[in-house]
Design brief:
Helix content is about 40%, strand content about 15%. The chain has helices at about 15-35, 60-70, 90-100, 115-120, 140-150, 170-180, 210-215, 240-245, 250-255, 275-280, 285-310, and strands spanning about 50-55, 75-80, 105-110, 125-130, 160-165, 185-190, 205, 220, 260. It is globular.
Length: about 300
């Protein structure tokens, strides 16, 4: 049986194109499972998974929990906001305490970039990065690419534009790595203040004009403006941002071809995209949510099968 080249999912940077294809094939099978009347499989019945969320996240956490339950895993939930981390306990102390409960896998979201990498060097369990600071969010990129593949087939040569707050977005970085590994062409588009200085070194095009970017692409992934990560003003006002980078139905309908519209959520309706775009037939936002469960099931199933062979 094919297996992943790694024992963890720390970031898209650390996995291969073959790993991504294997995750997609596995997710195809799980997608059939979650559309059956009985949505559960016993695949991870003997595996214990700890969800460690050191940062708030409703959607990602729910998606992982649902994926774990669909696989029949035993689940421990740990939210750092209400825990001993506030009393000064270190990340490694916290995790060692949880591991002493014999945990096989840790799904972790953490505000510090590289937290998962640090952890993987100190503990035996498999680590799944559910977002580390403004660094990576690998399962989001996998579900985004999987959703595009479902609609357009092979990603090779497809043109994808990531629009908005690229500077603070872990979704953008993971998407760039994944799309490039799958042979897609990638551009980023947003205000110059929200584009990292050396972004071109990742092999992506840079466009500051939304209209030009949309006319070029097959898929527009509209990223959220991350107000909570901004410690200064990166554009004059929300209204100004909407005028230049907000996608509305009028712009969408005036393009020379139909493009797909995506959004990693949660949407600031009326900022990145208007409601009529979010709910239009070109939007695949709800498919992204459904695919998120199948992709996370696939990742945890493949990592667990490596644990069993270890």
């Amino acid at each position: 049986m094919a297996e992943l080249s790694t024992n963890h999912l720390l970031g898209i940077k650390y996995i291969t194109a073959a790993d991504i294809e294997l995750i997609f094939k596995t997710a195809d099978q799980f997608k059939e499972v979650i559309n059956r009347p009985i949505k559960k499989v016993p695949s991870l019945r003997d595996i214990t998974i700890a969800n460690l969320f050191f940062e708030n996240s409703t959607r990602t956490k729910l998606s992982f929990e649902l994926a774990e339950k669909r696989l029949s895993a035993d689940v421990i939930n740990f939210t750092a906001g209400s825990s001993s981390v506030k009393k000064g306990e270190t990340l490694i102390d916290t995790v060692n305490n949880i591991l002493s409960m014999k945990v096989d896998m840790v799904v972790m979201r953490h505000p510090n970039p590289g937290a998962g990498i640090l952890l993987s060097k100190h503990i035996k369990a498999s680590i799944v990065n559910a977002g580390d600071g403004a660094h990576e969010h690998p399962t989001q990129a996998l579900l985004d690419c999987f959703s595009i593949r479902e609609k357009l087939g092979d990603l090779h040569g497809k043109k994808i534009v990531l629009v908005g707050d690229i500077l603070h977005s872990r979704v953008a970085l993971s998407n760039i790595f994944a799309l490039k590994k799958l042979g897609a062409e990638v551009k980023v588009c947003g205000p110059a203040t929200l584009l990292p200085k050396h972004i071109g070194q990742l092999g992506v095009g840079v466009e500051t004009n939304l209209r030009k970017a949309l006319e070029w692409c097959d898929v527009a992934n509209m990223l959220r403006v991350q107000n909570e990560r901004m410690n200064m003003s990166f554009f004059p006002s929300t209204r100004e941002y909407v005028l230049q980078y907000g996608l509305n139905k009028k712009i969408l309908d005036s393009l020379p071809k139909e493009i797909l519209v995506m959004h990693p959520g949660p949407i600031n309706r009326g900022v990145e995209i208007t409601s009529d775009v979010a709910d239009s037939k070109q939007s695949i936002i709800l498919q992204q949510v459904e695919n998120g469960v199948a992709i996370r099931m696939a990742v945890m199933y493949l990592l667990a099968s490596k644990l069993k062979h270890a």
